[in-house]
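Q: Structure tokens for this one, please.
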Amino acid sequence: MGKNVSTDEFLNHHSSSNFQVQKIAGCEDLERAKSLIRERFILVGAVEQFDEFLVLLSGLLGIDSESLVYRSKNQATGGNKEVVPAAFADRLREQNKLDTALFEWVKSELLDSYISGYPGDFQQDLDSFRKLNSLRSPAKFPIWCDTVYRNLYVKPISSLVRKRNGLPSFGSYRY
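A: Here is the predicted structure, written as tokens:
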């Protein structure tokens, strides 16, 4: 995050522990995070299941998945990976048990419940979307418009909604 801190100082900071659970629940409470997701979120997903997320979103919103075509950017190449010392890796795993549990719950149980409520043949729509996505490139102007819309409208409004619902308005991004 552009800070000049040691690994140990970073690991001692509250933001290095269960960041996602804290971001959603406002504290380190896994069951509260799950409850809030069920009650207040229309859809959540994991990056590894991004195509599934987009197809589910198109079904929820009643829009054509063709409008959700995307191109991956800034993907890691797998080249220059730094090895995390075992002591730090063990500490990170320990400090993020709740995030790991939330991630597994979203990927398995929650995704299955979304798919069971999908209005149509999910697997067929997913296969069609993946095929379409591999053949088309999204237009640049709508992407620019989306960026402007998100930064000038969605982010400020979502911040106000989070604050009104007793959640951190900007989350725990600040170090």
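A few notes: DSSP finds eight helices and no strands in the chain. The longest helix spans residues 140-164.
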